[in-house]
């Protein structure tokens, strides 16, 4: 055991951690009894410098076992040749997939001892690979197997050239463009070889021609080790033959080399795989969308008929470079950007190399947008290569030279990381390792050429470098588009001036900002100075600007963000949360660009911002838990004023929390209404308890117990953001206290609650409405239980019985509340049901309400409360049926409108389909009413007629801002129209 421990310690000096390392080294002939053999030390040093010494050694041992006869030659070559040593060990220490290839074909290591195959000869090499000994092209599985081996062999050469410098200093570190160019040339050669095989299999006629157009990274000569290769096929001749040529090429190359993706063709996967040149021309001139022209920016013929490919490129060029002039350019760019962003789960956004914030897509999209804007008049910008185009933008003055250089450096760093990750197992991936993956981080760092420095591990160094480059890309993204663009332009000599103020504004306009000049002013105000706050804002704004561009009101959202930032400038954690929590920024942008209520509340309840990164905490808090917490906080306050202030603060917090969860689609209508109703009830409970305590302290006695009965939407737990709290106050005299004294005491308590809650405030009103009490405003504010019972039995009208259908205890003395509910049950659920005379009275009142209360000029088809099929229609229908049948149908004895409606089918009072239509309309009207409040910041029952407010309301209800909001209005009208027809039958005809 001791001897093994010493051996392991010795091998560890060379970077080996595997216990088998000593045995493998001895089997290779590089390790003796006392340690490394002198003539093999260079090999051991090389292994120790590889990204994964254990992986490299294991690969060599596998090759030795697979080809024992050839091992002496490889052993000798490793000892003598630094080139082979560096390239082979570099590959084996980086890629288990290429190690598998070398084991399956052991002699392939000789490729790495000689000069690489020039990329210009890749096509000939792969063509030769698919040619049999008889000179005939191989077919079927033989062709695919031969192409796979040839492709992997050339890929091995490229990887060896890319990695050898990690092991041997005398080997050059090839630039990114060289590796990407060679990978692209290899992909082009594979497509050409696949087409050769397809040609032999299909045997087309002399007039059948096919051109392969590369798109995406292949078109830009910037392929990865593992990439889908996007293509478009252009054919001439028999369409069946050319289609078979294309599909066979895709199958052969897809099986042997990489996936060939033709989804960028006209009409996507639903369109024809091959079109003629005229067919492509007609489609692009009539039907293509802007994103398709942006994709065509990289289109380049790479295989097949050269003449046909050249004609295609000549045809699409003018269309690409005039795309920015299209009338729908802004909307199309927004739509395209949203599709890209939605590919990234928020929890992975910070690790996504390609689509994440500060990732490759930021660079590529920025360059392409500048190309589309300025390439119309400057042919130097018309390159399919991201790096070439960026260099041209810098040379021409559209981008500062230093900015272009830094952006290029960071882009190449991320591409190098991407290449190493894909080489590991030859799998497509763009995900940077998580902080917990220390072994993966160490390997990736070494594979990228990063070593430990001053006590910091290689993984820590890599993580720091990754974050530095991501932050740099975000900063430069901001600089190029938003912040100091006008200042940069002013420094360009007049003779070389290419950017204008108009162009600067048009860029923000292209992202959806209706007032670019105002947006530039907000950006300048937020980033002015050299403070830490300004620096963080400079890093945050590009994210916010992009995200706000996808909201219904980018300009209003940016203004709201400025106001919130200025209001919270001294809040120490505010910017830190935005900087460190990507999901918070994304969700905040949605909220600010949609709602006027949210930013107003956020400035006074900033702590809710911290919940945006945790959807479960934002939306998952139980109403009972909230109510308990609010009551406990209020109970600790010394008086009514302090108690109400605390209640307001907590209610503001909850109102904002629910509004955020609602707008973000994290809460359904019933949960929203229940949460708002619960917090309102808790506010009443806290205020009432404080008022009672104060009166007790003043008088020393408690003449009566008091209960608060929720009515209307509060009673039904159906409150909206702008709803008042309809209540009744009921009291019960203490023993020996006269009814009049008890009522007087209770009235003073109730008035204290009502006045303290109704005091002016910046928050949405806390209006306690007692107008549903007996005799309305002319009646006493508080009655005893006996007085209520006597009134309802003697003088109560049918509308009062209807109002009591929603009555429930919400605050105060629970026993008294239960007694009140028991007392009114015979009133609201009359024995024998509602007599026909009273039913007619209900219908008459409803007709009068419809006629007299609809605001002048209101659209009855979009008024959420009083409109046709709106809330009043459905609620009155449910309540009439409750009055008529609840005495014999216990399920109808509920304060909930949807609850009452859903009890109708079992009672035989309505069809299930009718009830579902009514519930759907009620929920839609409730959501629309709530959304209108959130969007406008004030309570309104009428949906906006048009404009951004209507778009925002539609967006709050789950419709994309890109959609025509008229479609939402049409859907609303359809739903409520169906409900109104059912109401006509159930309420009037019945």
TrEMBL record:
Keywords in alphabetical order: ATP-binding, Magnesium, Multifunctional enzyme, Nucleotide-binding, Nucleotidyltransferase, Transferase
EC nos: 2.7.7.89, 2.7.7.42
HAMAP family assigned: GlnE
Annotated ranges, domain PII-uridylyltransferase/Glutamine-synthetase adenylyltransferase: 334-481, 846-987
Gene: glnE
Described function: Involved in the regulation of glutamine synthetase GlnA, a key enzyme in the process to assimilate ammonia. When cellular nitrogen levels are high, the C-terminal adenylyl transferase (AT) inactivates GlnA by covalent transfer of an adenylyl group from ATP to specific tyrosine residue of GlnA, thus reducing its activity. Conversely, when nitrogen levels are low, the N-terminal adenylyl removase (AR) activates GlnA by removing the adenylyl group by phosphorolysis, increasing its activity.
Record-stated family: Belongs to the GlnE family.
Organism of provenance: Amycolatopsis antarctica
Protein known as: Bifunctional glutamine synthetase adenylyltransferase/adenylyl-removing enzyme
Region (Adenylyl transferase): 493-990
GO terms classed as biological process: regulation of glutamine family amino acid metabolic process
Cofactor needs: Mg(2+)
Chain spans, region Adenylyl removase: 1-485
